[in-house]
Every structure is written in C-alpha cells, then in structure tokens.
Amino acid sequence: MTLYQDDIAAIRTLKEHHGSAWDAIDPESVARMRAQNRFRTGLDIARYTAGIMRRDMAEYDADSSVFTQSLGVWHGFIGQQKLISIKKHLKTTNKRYLYLSGWMIAALRSEFGPLPDQSMHEKTAVPALIEELYTFLRQADARELDLLFTRLDAARAAGDDTAAEFLQSQIDAYETHVVPIIADIDAGFGNPEATYLLAKKMIEAGACAIQIENQVSDEKQCGHQDGKVTVPHEDFVAKLNAVRYAFLELGVDDGVIVARTDSLGAGLTQKLAVSHRPGDLGDQYNAFLDVEEISEAGLGSGDVVLSRDGRLVRPKRLASNLYQFRPGTGEERCVLDCITSLRNGADLLWIETEKPHVEQIAGMMDRIRAAIPNAKLVYNNSPSFNWTLNFRQQAYDLLAEQGADVSAYDRAELMSPDYDDTELGRLADEKIRSFQKDGSARAGIFHHLITLPTYHTAALSTDDLAKGYFGDEGMLAYVRGVQRREIREGIATVKHQNMAGSDIGDNHKEYFAGDAALKAGGAHNTMNQFG
C-alpha cells in the first residue's frame, strides 16, 4: 500500500463511521488533497529539509564531487519557477536548494523602498519571504499533482489500464518542489536575544539553515562593501548559541548553522576582546590589532592600553571610536574565526572573499581542515565579482607562467570583446565553467550559491522587452521574445491561469458541488489556445 492508497482506505472507514451525512465525501478526492498538501506547517518543512541537508553533507564528506547549489530569489514566484525549471530540465531537485539573500530583501522587499545591504530593512521581512517561498513551492506541488490526477481520470475514463497504472506510480513516487532554504539573518539584528527571536520566526516559517555573520549588527555592511566591522569571538559564539537554542526549542534538532566570517575584508573592530590569560581566544583576537608601544608617561586622557609581553601597547583608535587591525592579517583572522565557529556549534562555514580564486580559498581551508578535517564551506559565487575580468587575469598569469607568448594581450584591457574568441578567452571561460567543480574538489566547498542572480535577470529581461515593445517592434517584441519561446520551450507560465491555480480550483469545485460546479476552464477559456 502507498500513502495515497492508505489515505483512501482511512477516509473510506471514516466515511462509513459517519454514515449518510458524509455521502458527498469522496475518499479519493480527500487523498488527492492530502497529497497536494503534504507539509502542514513550516516546522514540518524545516524538519524535512534539515534531513536533506544533513544527508547531502554526509555524502559530500564521502565524495566531494557531489556538491550542492542554489540561486538567490526575492519572491515566491521566482523560487517556484526555478524549481519547476530544475525538475523539467534535470528531472530531480536533488542537491539543489534556494538561497534567501538579505541583500535582495533590503533592495526589493522593504517598506522603506530600496535600501543598501546594511540591516536597515524590517527584520519581519525575512521570515515573511521564507513563508512566501514555501507557499509557492507547495502550490507548485499542488498544480503538478493536479495535472497528474486529471490525466489519471482521463486514462481511467478511456479504459487504458496501462496508462492509469503508470500515472498512479508517478503520483506514488512524486518528488516535491520543497527544498532546503539557506536563509540570511545578517548579523542577527541586535543582541543574542533578538537573534534568537528572529531565528525562531525563520524556523517556524520553514528555514532549516540559518546563515549568520560576525559583523556588528548596527554597523553591518554588505560583504562586498568597505567599512566592515567585526565582533570578538565570544560575542559571535553567543549568537551561534542563540540560533541553536531556537532550533532545539522548536524540535528541529538537526538544523544547520552557517557561520560567516567577513574578516578578510573587515579591517575594524568595535571593541576589544576580553582576555583572561595569554593565548586565550580574546588574546588571540586582540593580537591582530594595530598597536603602538608607549610608556606609562605617554598615556593620554581616555587612552586604552594593553599589556603585551611586559610592554604597554595602545591600539590605534579611529575618530569613529573603532579600532583597526594590522593590514595583511585578514586570512589569519578568517582561519581563527572558522575554527572557533566550528568548535562552538556551527555546521558550515562561509568565507566572504574579494575575488573568486580557488587557491586563495583552498589556502585558508587547508589550515582550517588541519584542525577540523570535515570543515565545509558555503561559497558566494557573487555577482559583485567581475568574473570575466578575474578569470582572464588568472588565465593571462597562467599562460605567462607557462612561458606562452602573451604579447597579443593587454592585461589592463582584458574585458575587451576582442579577446572573446582567443586562447586566453576560452581558457578563462573554461575556468569559470569548472569553478564550482574545482572549488568543491580542492577548497572544501560543499554549497555553491549566487546571492542575487534573479535581481539581475529580472532587470535584463525587462530591458529586452521594454526596448522592443516601446520601440519599433511593438507587440512582436513580446510575442517573439516571450510568448513564442514559452510555447516552444514548454514554459508552464504560458498557461498563466493554470499556473495561478485556476484548474485546481475547478477540481475543488467539483469535489464540493459535483455536477453543479461552475467551472472557469470550459470551452471558452482562451487558455485552451495553448493546447
């Protein structure tokens, strides 16, 4: 027996118990509605998807070629269409997730309008988007199953038992569109209690993985902007604990915490770490500070000093009252951050880099894995990188190192389209193509994501349509550039009424009212023009 058949049998028994009052209730219709609503709450989703991530992490530990991927999305519909496309082209959602980007919430979902990625948007927008994404993914399940149910009914009506059996097997083995979401909580939006409260809301909405960074909450900057300020490890560990407590309170015992360090690009700290003895964690954090040796006689009013190896040193303090780290210590600080996070409850790491370079990432991960062998990264394949320029520079340097003649290339002008169809251009493109595979094999990258790709694709596709529609092409711009492609490439949105739930609603009306149901999908529905 399958769950579908079990539900039919259970409702049939329940119907018999209630007698004639339930004559209108069809057990198979109930079973269908249950199949279309597999996940009743966000916590059901969080527990289910946490299990997926844990299995994927274990598989990656055994074989680094089976890394995972996601794209950042800013609306439930965009997330839904991404998963529909994955199922259509790749036949399975296995190892494919969604990423919820704080940057895109700030830029696209705040009631204040577009904002920079500085934690100024409403914190409630984060769990709201998680809930919205899963609402759309569940609706994708309901729609796809509804199409299977309709085909099953047609096969039965035609007496085609073979087709009916095949369709029933597809229903029984149905793969959901619901996948893990890695959700950005920024720097926690306040103190550890605030982090805990927001994490609870995110988990209740369905998040199984929460990403948190070691920046100061009220000074948070986008990872690719200047002016980033980190916090001492003890402050960050308190927030890791807050997230773990939220997971455990809600019964998501295998929830995933992604600890992000911005230390590579952060040259500032808001406060000094507390140190109880030489060499402890606080002392290691403070050891990276840019200091100057002074004598007791040289102390000024309001000076803060540290004792280091019997000497008095004064950390350099800026007019902003922030302290600066010594230049060139970013990688060392990242390594210490990552080891500390994993030793204090984090499951995955995120190192925010300034460029996509496998060996740079691997250099840090080698040191981290010397201490914690199964350390794994979530890596931001960021649109903030100029991928073409970075990899053409890497290709140029590699060719020069190999003794090849690079005189035909101007390293200062490598973005030129003149280099697109050259040995250098092709080598760079191949390195871009294989970056995720290479990074996972060499640098411990378990999960590759692009933070805000759908922000860029929405702008680009809108520009294409607007340019033609408001220009000389008129309606042809839409027909040739959008609708004709939808039809020929099997894009489900061409039947936008169906995508919005029209046929599901018709079938429900028939469940509820039988032959008296007034349906929208009759002969005069123009959606029928699309076959």
TrEMBL record:
SUPFAM superfamilies: Phosphoenolpyruvate/pyruvate domain (SSF51621). The keyword Protein transport does not apply. This is Isocitrase. One of its GO terms (molecular function) is isocitrate lyase activity. It comes from the Bacteria. InterPro entries: ICL/PEPM (IPR039556), Isocitrate_lyase (IPR006254), Pyrv/PenolPyrv_kinase-like_dom (IPR015813), Pyrv_kinase-like_dom_sf (IPR040442). The keyword Lyase applies. Keywords: Lyase. It catalyses: D-threo-isocitrate = glyoxylate + succinate.
